[in-house]
Task: inverse folding
């Protein structure tokens, strides 16, 4: 009764109106005996709509997790033939011969890692530079459009990067860059072999452009999560812009490492653009000019040709390795990014 | 908030008091500060005297912190600009390099902000190292003397290598004061230095201010009337971007000229 009075007071507009009558009736009704049904027994006090909503979204969320586990399991069970046949040899031998049905994945694992790491070597300083400019130095009117543009790079389909690589990058490397390095460093093992254009260097450059937006945008977020009180503290001690930036960077170290590893994750799994420019030859060579091969490229190129069970099984094992590596790299990277961003909350 | 006719009081009436036996350190003339098109402070005239404590009081948003940040040109870093003049030891601060100015006018913030990636010792000498001071033996000495001056030495002397973020909030704030002292500034600005601390730490900070004013000119912004009356020699009352009244602390707190000041001090508004 009291509750109703209070309600009437606050809802002054309703007083005396038809709505007030309805409202009072509503409370009278709900005050009456609660109907105990099968549903209320299960639900308790919960609203049934909310409960369905909650469970349904939970189901969707679990579905994502379930899919990942299912994929891993499928790949594992389909690659048992190859795992049994080659064992550890699959990882440490270099012969990839579909005709003789001998599969050693070392050259493609090597190609995957070396191309990705070279890409990071180029993209890391650039990406951090972009991030520092966007987070610390750029005036507001410039920061937004520039951030948008760098993120736009991430949205370009990789086949377009590949085409650009074939028609612009590769000829340029073949005609100018690679001969230049060969003349400058004739004895360096990094620049041996014929300058085809297609090869490790082209793949690394293409990859570096593709991971740049990831590294720079995540790094920018990480830098922005460092609170302003740190910058103020440095300024108040007579720090220059550069010294303030150093303080911010040292606070964000692990997050920046995480951003770089997210870039690595992307580079390792990148398929189309790399396949188009890397030359696709499973060989281990120190030279940047020689063709190479990556796990993702092998899968893209050879699935249609794989006819024998063992061949298919070997390819699936390769996919499983790629899957595990990218998942590990991404988990580690996310943890690093979170560790920086959480520190301040 | 009570809207009061006395808000429009002009600043001519509120001349800074003269303090006997102390020379002028900073002279603020006709200072107005803008953020974009918003005028945050208008026509402030204040004289600040050497080795005295000036307390700045006033309700939130009255421009106290902005005033403080004008003095070491920190407003510039967040897009503020000002008209008028600030004369620091006979020099216009706009003609000084801000890096050099901030070495001479140190600042302690509301929330303790030690550098978590540096050890306690390195926190103390962070400013010196940034300014190119490298003499290791000298730096070690400065660490000790600064921490002693900040009344923190005994508590941290065995953990100097630990991160500056690993000590309590009150200790962190004293570390920040030590970091400021290590620069041997002439003026220390304190922006509500005790508002995030417990009563015991607050008392320690206040004691410290008493000690520090023998060597430094101190300007402290505070929400705490008792604190202002305890630590300061003279007090300025700001309201809505204007300096309403400024006088010796004892006068402000016992017999203010203006009713508005009295109302604020007695807690009737703000």
Result:
């Amino acid at each position: 009764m009291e509750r109703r009075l209070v309600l009437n007071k606050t809802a002054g507009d309703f007083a005396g109106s038809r709505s007030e009558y309805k409202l009072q009736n509503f409370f009278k009704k709900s005050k009456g005996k609660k109907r105990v049904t099968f549903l209320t027994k299960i639900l308790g006090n919960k609203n049934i709509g909310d409960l369905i909503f909650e469970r349904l979204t939970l189901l969707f969320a679990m579905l994502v997790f379930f899919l990942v586990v299912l994929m891993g399991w499928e790949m594992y069970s389909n690659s048992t033939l190859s795992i049994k046949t080659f064992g550890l040899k699959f990882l440490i031998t270099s012969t990839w011969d579909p005709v003789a049905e001998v599969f050693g994945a070392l050259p493609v694992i090597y190609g995957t890692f070396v191309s990705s790491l070279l890409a990071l070597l180029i993209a890391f300083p650039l990406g951090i530079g972009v991030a520092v400019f966007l987070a610390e130095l750029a005036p507001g009117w410039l920061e937004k459009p520039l951030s948008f543009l760098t993120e736009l790079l991430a949205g370009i389909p990789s086949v377009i990067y590949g085409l650009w690589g074939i028609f612009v990058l590769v000829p340029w490397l073949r005609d100018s860059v690679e001969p230049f390095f060969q003349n400058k460093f004739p004895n360096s093992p990094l620049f041996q072999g014929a300058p085809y254009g297609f090869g490790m260097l082209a793949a690394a450059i293409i990859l570096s452009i593709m991971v740049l937006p990831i590294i720079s945008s995540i790094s920018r977020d990480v830098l922005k999560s460092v609170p302003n009180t740190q910058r103020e503290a440095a300024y108040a001690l007579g720090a220059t812009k550069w010294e303030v930036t150093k303080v911010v960077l040292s606070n964000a170290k692990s997050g920046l490492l995480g951003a770089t590893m997210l870039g690595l994750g992307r580079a390792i799994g990148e398929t189309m653009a790399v396949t188009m420019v890397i030359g696709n030859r499973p060989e281990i060579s120190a030279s940047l000019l020689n063709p190479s091969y990556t796990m993702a490229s092998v899968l893209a190129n050879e699935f249609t040709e794989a006819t024998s069970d063992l061949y298919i099984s070997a390819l699936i094992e390769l996919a499983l390795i790629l899957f595990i590596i990218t998942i590990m790299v991404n988990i580690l990277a996310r943890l690093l990014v979170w560790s920086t961003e959480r520190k301040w909350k | 908030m009570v809207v009061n006719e006395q808000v429009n009081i002009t600043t001519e009436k509120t001349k800074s008091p003269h303090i006997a036996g102390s020379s002028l350190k900073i002279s603020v003339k006709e200072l107005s500060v803008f953020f974009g098109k918003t005028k945050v402070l208008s026509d402030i005239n204040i004289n600040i005297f050497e080795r005295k404590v000036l307390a700045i009081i006033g309700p939130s948003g009255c421009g106290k912190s902005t005033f403080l940040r004008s003095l070491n040109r920190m407003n510039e870093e967040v897009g503020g600009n000002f008209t008028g003049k600030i004369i620091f030891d006979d020099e216009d601060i706009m003609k000084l390099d801000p890096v050099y100015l901030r070495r001479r006018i140190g600042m302690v913030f509301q929330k303790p902000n030690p550098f978590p990636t540096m050890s306690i010792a390195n926190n103390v000498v962070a400013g010196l190292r940034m300014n190119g001071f490298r003499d290791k033996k000298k730096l070690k000495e400065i660490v000790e003397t600064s921490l002693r001056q900040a009344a923190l030495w005994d508590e941290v002397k065995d953990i100097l290598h630990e991160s500056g973020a690993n000590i309590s909030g009150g200790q962190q704030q004293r570390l920040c004061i030590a970091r400021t002292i290590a620069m041997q500034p002439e003026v220390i600005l304190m922006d509500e230095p005790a508002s995030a601390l417990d009563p015991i730490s607050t008392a320690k900070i206040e004691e410290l201010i008493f000690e520090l004013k023998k060597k430094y000119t101190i300007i402290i912004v505070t929400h705490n009337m008792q604190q202002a009356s305890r630590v300061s020699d003279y007090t300025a009352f700001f309201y809505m971007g204007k300096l309403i009244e400024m006088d010796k602390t004892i006068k402000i707190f016992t017999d203010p000229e203006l009713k508005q000041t009295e109302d604020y001090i007695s807690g009737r508004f703000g």
Observations:
- The beta strands of chain B are 24-35, 38-49, 53-57, 80-88, 91-92, 105-108, 187-191, 217-221, 234-239, 242-248.
- The two ends of chain B are 7 Å apart (CA to CA).
